[in-house]
Amino acid sequence: MSAPRMPIESGVPDPFPYMHPTLKKNFGQWKYHDRPRPGVLHHVAKTGEEVWTVRAGTQRQMDTYTIRKLMDIADQFADGYVRFTIRSNIEYMVTDEKKVQPLIDKLQAEGFPVGGTGNSVSMISHTQGWLHCDIPGTDASGAVKALMDELYHEFTHEEMPNRVRMTTSCCQINCGGQGDIAINIQHTKPPKINHDLVANVCERPSVVARCPVAAIRPAMVNGKPSLEVDEKKCICCGACFPPCPPMQINDPEHSKLAIWVGGKNSNARSKPTFHKLVAAGIPNNPPRWPEASAVVKNILNAYKKDAKDYERMNEWIDRIGWPRFFELTGLPFTKYHIDNWRGGRVNLNASAHIRF
Ligand code: SF4
Ligand code: SF4
């Protein structure tokens, strides 16, 4: 009998061949770590070996020239090893403390800010945007670049009460995650259907099944099989657009941005939380999105001034209460902040249990 065919693993590659030799050697054998200054981590192994990690911000979507420049810095000023964090920061590891300052100086001279550690505003994790995804209503990476340009000081300094982790999402289906502050697209009008294309492009039963509020039904339009939307039921989520591009929901005027706060993924001190809507209807205004940046900076300033040391955004809001949050930030509280959607009792269920 022939040997069974082995599965082809094509997941995350084995990190060990690319790991700095000192990290590899001391894997799982670390005694302690500290942060000598913002942007630098210092790890000490039980063997007494030490590693300094210098973290720098990048614009994430990089051209070949910039990548080569970053790699040249690794060869000339570090030990030739780099890694990227999940927030698109680049990290250089060195085993000689004397190399740390020249490496920082070189990175800063080339325009890469050193920071993003501890109680700073680290790089915003963002979804793919216009360059890589087929359904975005905004360019998450562009909005992030514009905002991080204005938060340069908060990236290079650890002056926040606790770490601030922000996210963005460029559609409402949302492959972005929970964040202390999140900038998300918000559609405000139901999709417009191009009936000439539906029959050729869309698998109608799967589009009907996709709608979370059962607002789509099959219809014959001009003698052709198509779909129709019950606009009273539609919650403008955009879930029908990916499987059926003729149901266009992106709109230069009616696709807005919304800001959400108080989400977190970590289990430190309190359980993970969902972020909640605090500002809606913000213009989706490329290339610098000044209105969204202004709201985010306003929330950050209020948090920085009023939160106690070590309070994350959600812990601060839990302590002061939502009315005080809206007072401190000056954001208007409207009826749109109240989730009165009946499905909310299911969609806010954070347990991992299967439900029907
Ligand atoms: S948030 Fe939506 S549009 Fe943006 S990359 Fe993810 S799936 Fe695509
Ligand atoms: S936008 Fe969402 S709610 Fe509206 S029809 Fe499409 S899937 Fe249904």
The main β sheet shows up as:
5 strands, antiparallel
Count, helices = 11
Number of strands: 13
Question: Helix/strand/pairing class, anyone?
Answer: alpha+beta
| pLDDT < 50 stretches | none
Q: What Rg, in angstroms, do the CA atoms define?
A: 24 Å
Strand order across the biggest sheet? Answer: 1-2-3-5-4
**Element pattern in H and E:** HEEEHEEHHHEEEHHEEEEEHHHH
Quaternary state reads single chain
Q: Can you give the mean pLDDT? A: 92
How far is the N terminus from the C terminus?
45 Å
Helical content (DSSP H or I, runs of 4+) = 25-40%
* Shape verdict: globular
Report on this structure.
- The protein is of the alpha+beta class and 356 residues long.
- It has 11 helices and 13 strands.
- The mean pLDDT is 92.
